[in-house]
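hiii, so i know i said id send this last week but things got crazy w the move. better late than never?? heres the sequnce for the chain we talked about at the cafe, plus the structure i predicted for it. fair warning i was half asleep when i ran it
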Amino acid sequence: MKAIKTNCILLLVLVFLGCRENYNLNIGAFPENLPINLIDLNSRYDEMNSDFVSPYFSTGVTLIFSSNAIRKGGNFDLDARILSFNQDKESGDFTFSAGQITGQNATIRNQLFEINSDCEERGPYSFVTPSFGINYSLFSRVCEGISHIFLNEFENTGPFSYRSENFQISLLNENVSEMYPSFYGENYLKGADLTSQGTPEMLLFTSDKDGQFDIFETDIPSGQSPIQFLSDANPKTVRKLILNTASNDHMPFVYGDLLVFSSDRPGGLGGYDLYYSMKTANGWTEPINFGPKINSEYDEFRPVVSDSWEFSNQVMIFSSNRPGGLGGFDLYFVGIPKF
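okay and structure toks below
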């Protein structure tokens, strides 16, 4: 049939309604053998620190990321694109594109305009709450060499008006850097809708409190929403994860029970490598290097993960300064197994 030969524009996380003919039940897969440069998004400057925005839209998925392209190599700002992926059912050819933010995504564009400042904005993290009409985003703002975590509360108040407020979050109550927040919980799945995402129970982040970057966690008290917890100025009980080393363990992201992060610990391929660990009843498992199919002798930073029942593996986006990119750091994507 003619319709079968037509490419389908699919969600990044709800992809592959069209796929190779030999796929069972039209289930597709992201390519796992080699990371692919998001060439339509990257520039000759630096793109890194991405995050999938929820909820997902029918024409693609919104990806927020940090870039210094606007300032031509200066400070980093948050930017966003709509990612769309195609797979031809007959040939199996896989293509993708990164379009500009327009139309129904204007709220995200306006929110980033209110977040960006004369300092640097990195490590975005979005999440869904029951607060109808209010968008919440976490991000790291670097001023004078020290990074703090901020919460942005954004609300459309009319056809052409909105309200935006930034609140600094203090976790360690010390004059040290705090970066890369990420929620997790026993039944929490980032990116799912309100009816199925579960409730965040803990917050991960990194800090250079002890001279190198380590991954810390803090409990969200039972009965408190993430917003109530983050807005509370009282000191928080914070502890290091057991998987930290004497090297830098940095940029964590949790998807379900999967923790991915960057580290320059010994035994890697060079620079920062990407690792993964699983949450169990006994805590986090010993981290495993993703290996040479994903890592290189250069730096791999800030991995983020998502998936869907409509394809057989998960997708991971990360940044790297490996040769062959368009600039310094570029964003790449690669398929990884469902853990």
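btw The helical segments are 106-115, 226-231. thought thatd interest u
miss u guys!!
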